[in-house]
């Protein structure tokens, strides 16, 4: 991802919580996209913004030869433990990938494109390292009305005096914005799908640790103080606590797949 050193460090602060509690909340999205791509033996796949490697683990378990890249050194360290057989796991920005042209059959990127300084140029970079006739798959949050958790995230954004990269109105956060960026890069999405990804936590404190590990929340705690951010969290999540103490929020994510010119 393209981000300032400060933002990179924010993702490192609670990397273990992200890897343990939050990243796998999108496992259904990863599974659906990898199935649509036909990832399996003989497939070479790069995941850009790979985090701690949950999607890479799924792809490797399907038999694909996998590589990954993320701007967080802490998350890449965890990905190396999660996917030790990966061909390469790199710390770096998504706008200048350290790979030769046509290196992969498929490039995936989930919940990461919004951090790009120039999203269309970044998607063009995804296409550059994809072989002719290969696939570029970009996934992320669904439309806000379909995602309960975005209510909390929007409240945090509204409270901030300044926004971190990836949280502004100009960042490609919605499915239509992402597809528009793909078209701007010369790729026409040929397949799109919605995937339910309910966020489920064992209790409200686990939910706080999970979402508190994100770059946005680390940024907000730094700017507003933890008590103020926790008040916003409690206002949104306390009503979502179920009788057994677990927390569940319904969210829908989407992916879009485009083929590179043969």
Automatic annotation (TrEMBL):
SUPFAM superfamilies: S-adenosyl-L-methionine-dependent methyltransferases (SSF53335). Keywords: Methyltransferase, Transferase. One of its GO terms (molecular function) is methyltransferase activity. Gene3D superfamilies: Vaccinia Virus protein VP39. Residues 46-137 form the Methyltransferase type domain. GO terms for biological process: methylation. This is Methyltransferase domain-containing protein.
